[in-house]
Amino acid sequence: MGKTIAQKIFDAHLADKPFSDTWVLRLDRVFCHEITTPTAITDLMEKNMDRVFDPSKIKAVIDHVTPAKDSKTATQGKILRDWARRNNIKDFFDIGANGVCHAVFPEKGFVRPGFTVIMGDSHTCTHGAFGAFAAGVGTTDLEVGILKGVCSFKEPKTIRFVLNGKLPDGVYAKDVILHIISKIGVNGATNCVMEFAGPVIDAMSMEARMTLCNMAVEAGATSGICMPDMTTVEYLWPFIKDDFESKEAALAEYRQWISDEDAVYEKVHVYDLSEMEPLCTFGYKPDQVKPVREMAGTKVDQIYIGSCTNGRIEDLRIAGAVLKEALSQGKHIADGVRGILSPATPAVYQKALDEGLIKIFMDFGFCVTNPTCGACLGMSNGVLAEGEVCASTTNRNFNGRMGKGGMVHLMSPATAAATAIAGAITNSSLYKGKN
Fold it and tell me: Residue 134: its pLDDT value, please?
């Protein structure tokens, strides 16, 4: 019987199996940020266990509230900063070098096919885009991971999503994952791995695949995962070029992390996305999704472009193209609407500067902030007032997510940019289909 990629990764990393359905896995990476890790650090210190299993495999960043907004968040940053220094963790990204964790860590080449990755953050599933098993964990599991380099999981069950066809112009990975979540529901993949395959995935960039895997948790999944191919190798090549004679050799090595043709799945969903259209959420759950045209005219107070979902350079280029066209027609941000752009990493910010994208956003009327997660979870840099509505490229539209009493509509960067022009939800000029 064949195996899924998740099963192959579990087999290769098995350290112990104390119960028939419990797998203790060796970890390749433990990622840390200043919101969840300080609790684990403090607890380890109180137990006289202030040490790490391997400082080269631990990567840390201050990203959720940066720079600190008050004494409490400053203290959280200090705990992480001092811990990294005490334990000789070289890959610690402090103010000025820091970016959104799920953007900066892949950008640095820290995730590879076949890796196991944990972090005290639910959107750790993002890193499955590289053919890795990546999962968000709680404080206890994070502590054990930091101290011993292992984590326990239930035996992986995989749901396969075969995405056929070719996405229409103006339709993006964000629309695809919203479509999938709307079909299976927020509990549709609970305790499972969501494996993405098919022509639509083959045509996606690594950045688009990260967007897709990022929101697997919104369907209840432990991890999202794409199988490695030449697109993966091309993205990683600056970091792996000394390990392989050629890109083809790298691909041959990584092909071990591909599901077998006769692998057994919990379920298989097949979708033809050739006629898909841009989507956005309504209500307070990620599976409450409608075509943008059905939400057209919904007034908004704020536009937010950024986050671990859609704050990468590809996202900024897409939104920038929509705004550039509007600027050429003498348009600016709609009256009564504020726009906020937060590039996900310093490298993204620098590229956007070099390409003139930052100027486009600023000329249009956007506030451009440093890389941060702050607005996405209602902690800083874009919190909503009660009754306000935000068109957002983030990943959650829970009640109060971006501010008590605020409403969040999730959408692609293209749709968010178009909404900034109109002051109400609308399709972008990049989409030529039904409106």
Answer: 98
Long-range contacts of 348-353 (CB under 8 A, 24+ apart): 348/99, 348/103, 348/107, 348/311, 348/312, 348/313, 348/316, 351/313, 352/313, 352/316, 352/320
Per the CB < 8 A criterion, the answer to whether 423 and 162 are in contact is no
pLDDT attached to residue 432: 87
Tokens 């499972």, located at residue: 192
DSSP one-letter code for 76: H
- Return all residues near 249 (Cβ < 8 A) that are at least 6 apart: none
pLDDT of 294 reads 97
Nearest-10 crossing angle of helices 346-354, 357-364:
80
Tens digit of each residue's pLDDT (9 = 90 or more) over 346-400: 999 999 999 999 999 999 999 999 999 999 999 999 999 999 999 999 999 999 9
Fill in the amino acid letter for 49. M
For 36, 408, 429, the CA distances from 290, given in Å and listed in that order, are: 34, 14, 19
Euclidean distance between CA atoms 362 and 369, whole angstroms: 11
Q: Which of 185, 143, 178 is nearest to 43 (CA)?
A: 143
Strand pairing class (133-136; 150-154): unpaired
How many Cβ atoms sit within 10 Å of the Cβ of residue 39?
Answer: 16
List C-alpha distances in Å: 74 to 6, 71, 77, 95.
Answer: 38, 5, 5, 11
Q: How many residues does the chain have?
A: 435
CA distance 151 to 299: 46
Residue 298's SS3 state is: coil
Structural Rg of the chain based on CA atoms: 21
Which tens digit of pLDDT belongs to each residue from 8-42?
A: 999 999 999 999 889 999 999 999 999 999 999 99
Q: Which residues contact 375 (CB under 8 A, 6 or more apart)?
A: 304, 306, 307, 340, 342, 381, 382, 383, 392, 394, 402
Q: Which tokens sit at 215? A: 């929101």
Q: Tell me: the pLDDT tens digits for 133-155?
A: 999 999 999 999 999 999 999 98
The answer to whether the predicted template modeling score (pTM) of the entire model surpasses 0.85 is: yes
> Do the beta carbons of residue 133 and residue 6 sit within 8 Å?
yes
Strand, helix or coil at 99?
coil
Q: What is the dihedral of CA 55, 59, 64, 69, to 10 degrees?
A: 40
Q: Is the pLDDT of residue 435 over 80?
A: no
